[in-house]
TrEMBL record:
Keyword check for Cell membrane: no
PANTHER family, sorted: GLYCOSYL HYDROLASE, LP05116P
Keyword vocabulary terms for this entry: Glycosidase, Hydrolase
GO BP: any one term: carbohydrate metabolic process
Pfam families: Glyco_hydro_1
Top-level taxon of the source organism: Eukaryota
Coiled-coil regions listed: none
Name of this protein: Glycoside hydrolase
Record has Ribonucleoprotein as a keyword: no
Family as reported in the entry's similarity comment: Belongs to the glycosyl hydrolase 1 family.
GO MF terms held by the record: beta-glucosidase activity
InterPro entries on file: GH, GH_1_N_CS, Glyco_hydro_1
Upper taxonomic lineage: Eukaryota, Fungi, Fungi incertae sedis, Chytridiomycota, Chytridiomycota incertae sedis
């Protein structure tokens, strides 16, 4: 017993954490460095000239070097950012813009220099306006080859050993529904039926498959240890009864991952769609039947489950951990319950048997916009959020043995929340954000210091490759002549589940040996 206890202390679980953000929400510099307009630039400038926009936002474009220096102060070793497609491509899918590529290239180097692993999101909703003007963007199949061409440019530029973790498309359903069906966000296409969202999400799935296949065939992604994820927005559904809750979980979560894991929707997913009347097309049918070629192109194209989690549905308000600034009555979408994150991770692992990386998890403080600096920084509600969620994820990892390998807190900085500056998800406050003349000075919130201490004390073992600037791997003699990449850094793979289980025996044996001697 004592031996077991010691063994679990000495040999830590695999886990690392860090922060996320996205280009439009944080960069600003909307027309700097050869960047062309994205749909959000045009949407706000043309349709809502008096509303808040992200022309400046946190100005991270000019401040990323200082921002990234925060990571080691927290002991954070993962950093997620998105590339702005209109910053790196001319037109919709023309030539690359070398200045845009240089910007991200330098940012990636800075991430690595600060001891963190870059997670590159290819698409976080900021479509080039040119793609919209040419063929209405996600409303047309033409987006597929154009996206693949864009992804190809990213692999060529950053796939030299520096970037090994690729998130293709952020929250397919949110991007499709808001921008291309409900018309609430840019580019504001409206469509009465859900069919537009269904068609758009299908294009997201097909693109993900095509991009991963390109990486594998042209860039030898498997040998290089590249890992691909498809960050999906899920909320855990709890109640009112187990059957309907499970159907809701299936209808939400399996919609994203079934095709990319199995090649198609599974029968229980389709039944959940039909019983819940969810994700049905204009004719009331479950979405979409893929051709055999399409199924083959998607199957097995995610290497881990990328889980964006914020909220649990179906719990009484009295059971919520803390009120949220994105909660009722104003916004009503975030119901805070840490155990929901644990249950969601368990659900994913049971269904797909894959590693899980929480690619977003975060909290918007209540009325933070109206608080004094002192109130914002000493944020007891946010502290409670992180206490309950960090604990819940640790329980998933340690008690439930679910391989939650990483967590990316949303977000490093307070930023532009798709229309507002009053929902602040940042680990770090940005002074005067969204106001003219704001200094944009960064001030760390106390809850973030608590989280950093929590993980320091955990002494988890980082399973990700840290801090590898490109270096030539002499052991690799198989690289094809003329292949795009020569600099290949050694990649520590996310340990497979079976390895994790096996490795828990090894310490036990060592300890027994130690005691015998
Ligand atoms: C994430 O989506 C986004 O990836 C990220 O950009 C964003 O900053 C972050 O959330 C925080 O919101 O208006 O009631 O219909 C999270 C999932 C799905 C949450 C859509 C907000 C809108 C609910 N989002 N939801 S509602």
């Amino acid at each position: 017993m004592l031996v077991l206890l010691l063994a679990t202390r000495v040999f830590a679980y695999d886990f690392a954490w860090g922060f996320g953000g996205s280009a439009y929400q944080t960069e600003g510099a909307w027309n700097v460095g050869g960047k062309e307009p994205g749909v959000f630039d045009t949407w706000y400038h043309t349709n809502f000239p008096n509303a808040a926009n992200a022309d400046v936002t946190t100005d991270q474009y000019h401040r990323y070097k200082d921002d990234l220096k925060l990571l080691p102060t927290f002991g954070a070793t993962l950093y997620r950012f998105s590339v702005s497609w209109p910053r790196v491509m001319k037109g919709c899918s023309g030539e690359v813009n070398p200045e845009g590529i240089a910007f991200y290239s330098d940012m990636i180097d800075e991430i690595i220099k600060n001891g963190a692993v870059p997670f590159l999101t290819m698409y976080h909703w900021d479509l080039p306006q040119a793609c919209f003007e040419q063929y209405r963007g996600w409303a047309s199949d033409q987006i597929i080859p154009d996206f693949v061409k864009y992804a190809d440019a990213l692999f060529t530029a950053f796939g030299d050993g520096r970037v090994n973790y690729w998130l293709t498309i952020n929250e397919a359903e949110s991007g499709c529904k808001f921008g291309f069906q409900q018309g609430r966000l840019a580019p504001g296409l409206k469509n009465d039926t859900y069919q537009a969202t269904i068609d758009c999400v299908k294009r997201n799935h097909l693109i993900h498959g095509a991009v991963v296949n390109l990486a594998r065939s042209k860039y030898d992604a498997t040998r290089k240890g590249w890992k691909f994820g498809f960050p999906s927005n899920v909320e855990w559904n709890e109640g009112p009864d187990a059957v309907s809750a499970e159907k809701r979980n299936l209808a939400y979560a399996a919609w994203y991952h079934d095709p990319l894991v199995f090649g198609d929707f599974q029968q229980d997913t389709i039944s959940a769609f039909i019983d819940n009347k969810e994700n049905l097309d204009a004719a009331g049918r479950a979405p979409p039947s893929f051709t055999d070629t399409e199924k083959a192109s998607m199957k097995g194209t995610v290497d881990f489950i990328a889980m964006n989690y914020y909220s649990t549905a179906g719990i009484p308000v009295s059971q919520e951990d803390v009120p949220s600034g994105a909660g009722c009555p104003a916004y009503c979408w975030q119901h805070v319950w840490g155990q929901g994150a644990r249950k969601m991770a368990n659900w994913y692992y049971k269904r797909y048997n894959m590693d899980i990386i929480v690619t977003e998890l975060g909290y918007a403080g209540v009325n933070e916009a109206d608080m004094t600096l002192d109130q914002v920084v000493n944020d007891p509600n946010r502290l409670k959020f992180w206490q309950s969620h960090a604990t819940a994820l640790a329980q998933a990892l340690e008690e439930d043995q679910v391989p939650v390998k990483g967590m990316l807190m949303w977000s490093l900085l307070d930023n532009f929340e798709w229309g507002y500056y009053d929902q602040k998800f940042g680990a770090v406050h940005v002074v005067g954000l969204g106001t003219s003349g704001g200094t944009l000075e960064r001030v760390v919130k106390n809850s973030t210091r608590w989280l950093a201490d929590y993980y320091r004390q955990k002494k988890y073992k980082n399973p990700f490759a840290v801090g590898k600037l490109p270096s030539f791997d002499e052991n690799v003699s198989t690289s094809k002549p003329g292949a795009a990449n020569t600099g290949v850094a050694t990649v520590t793979k996310i340990q497979s589940v079976s390895t994790t289980k096996f490795s828990s025996i090894v310490p036990l044996l060592c300890m027994m040996l130690f005691f015998i001697l």
